[in-house]
Amino acid sequence: MKRYRLRVAYDGSNYHGWQEQNNGITIEQVLNETLSKVLKEEITVIGASRTDAGVHAYGNVAVFDSETRIPAEKICYAVNPFLPADIRIMKSEEVEDDFHPRFVDSRKTYEYHIHNSRIPFPTNRLYSHQVIVPLDVEAMQEAGKYMVGTHDFKCFCAAKAQVKTTVRTVNDVRVRKNGDEIIVEVQGEGFLYNMVRIITGTLIKVGLHAYPPEHVKEIIASKDRAQAGETVPAKGLFLQQIEYL
Predict the structure, then answer these.
(1) CA distance 8 to 45
(2) pTM passes above 0.85
(3) Cα separations (Å) of 35 from 13, 59, 83, 188?
């Protein structure tokens, strides 16, 4: 029995998130069913990030144990033809038997895509959040700097989340603009439920001049979810990569 690691990319539009559940089809469910079919044994994957319904990924990570004789690097080629077109295994490799994708020090990078134009572009409608009022990207960049570091991010956590602590470490927040597209990139060692989407909603309020960039310090200090911005839609969020340290 060996352990294999997969780097998985997917369009989350048609799925109820990563984690297998009873109320809809999920990424995890599809991977389990397809791997079991191709490898001819019962396979259960363990994912690194349980992305929410509608969230996309360039590089989520999953592991599974198998007795397959298929070379590790060729598992992705063997399985991909049997997966739906909106899920692909980008890389497969063998790892140590005790490697667990959630219990190893890692750094996750998320991107949130904003389409900043008065008229929405049809091909962007599933993969970005439309904001019709021009955003001040420089103000958003400045506000992002106040989010970097280890803080109690309770204000950026969905109210229904059940966690032992809301203290997290954010390594970097960047905001860049390319034409009508604005991308918010957040890198951290772990995130709270809806944290990146609430961070983005808060940066949008700064970009709309609802308050100055330095007000972010007061929002964090308040530990009050009501003080932060809205939770922007899931469709604009992408798990870019997971780096193991």
Answers:
(1) 12
(2) yes
(3) 22, 18, 9, 31
